[in-house]
Amino acid sequence: MRRKLLLGNWKMNKTPSEAKAFASEIKPLAKEAKSHKIDIGVCVPAVDLEGVKKILKKSMIVGAENVHYLPSGAYTGEVSIPMLKDLGINVSLVGHSERREYDNETSEKCNLKILALLENDMIPVYCCGESLETYEAGKTKAFVKEQIVTGLKDVKKEDASKIVIAYEPIWSIGTGKNASKEIAEDVCKYIRKIIRELYDTKTANRVRILYGGSVKPNNIKDYLSEKDVDGALVGGASLKADSFQELLRNIE
Ligand code: 13P
């Protein structure tokens, strides 16, 4: 059985001091999540990683929001895999739509990141999802398929099941217009079908697929009740300790 996963994405929020205070506040949730067999964690800005990791240690997932695919070099402003590993970080988001939109992150580039993370025993949380225009044109599945096939190119079967995929329709991110649970299930199920075609049923049944986009304490249960939705990637509602706790309690 796939374990449920609740993952916060702080985006560009929380200074290192705020991040440490918040990590101390949410730390008790780790035990609660464990007793309900739910994986829980936060993906935080690079400068917050060290402080947050020192507080949460192994109790919760502490992930990066982005990483470079090369181990070192003349890439001003970038963070490498060895830098993350040195802090004990072994998860990173890849290809969030905000990075695709504002930082020219292509699926080809995401593929290099995914391959580099897997090679270093790290877990990529690969984000995909379509714009409103694509959604309204009825081209969601073709669009998402291209993102998955390109992003997972050359990923070996034994590594594929380690990847977490997050389906986040862009039109639902930060807008309060969350996709219905039926839409989320339909696309997550389709993503699982693509994985099955690329690999096999066993791999497809192992890969965890999250929904993200205006997930709130009052709607998270609906998504998690769907067969192919294994968890949620949450922005806004993960930034306050009380709503992060509510998100967890509502899926327990
Ligand atoms: P919101 O939950 O704020 O809509 O953000 C979703 C998201 O982008 C998570 O990665």
Secondary-structure blueprint:
Layout: E1 4-9, H1 16-26, H2 29-35, E2 38-44, H3 46-56, E3 61-64, H4 81-86, E4 91-94, H5 97-102, H6 107-119, E5 123-128, H7 132-136, H8 140-151, H9 157-160, E6 164-167, H10 181-198, H11 201-206, E7 208-212, H12 220-224, E8 231-234, H13 241-249
Helix pairs in contact: 1-3, 6-8, 8-10
The structure holds 1,3-dihydroxyacetonephosphate.
Structure description:
Helices cover 45% and strands 16% of the residues. With 252 residues, it is an alpha/beta fold. The protein has one domain (4-251): Aldolase class I (TIM Barrel), CATH 3.20.20. Helix 6 (107-119) crosses helix 8 (140-151). The longest helix is centred in the C-terminal third of the chain and has 18 residues, at 181-198. The chain is globular. The protein binds 1,3-dihydroxyacetonephosphate.
Annotated CATH architecture: Alpha-Beta Barrel
The helix/strand class is alpha/beta
Termini gap? 16 Å
**CATH level-1 class:** Alpha Beta
| Structural Rg | 17 Å
**Count of strand segments:** 8
Number of domain units: 1
Order of strands across the main sheet:
3-2-1-8-7-6-5-4
| Stretches with pLDDT under 50, minimum 5 residues | none
Order of helices and strands: EHHEHEHEHHEHHHEHHEHEH
Query: CATH superfamily, please?
Result: Aldolase class I
Say which molecules are bound, naming each kind only once: 1,3-dihydroxyacetonephosphate
Fraction of helical residues: 40-55%
Largest beta-sheet details: 8 strands, parallel
The whole-number mean of residue pLDDT values reads 97
- SS field, number of helical segments: 13
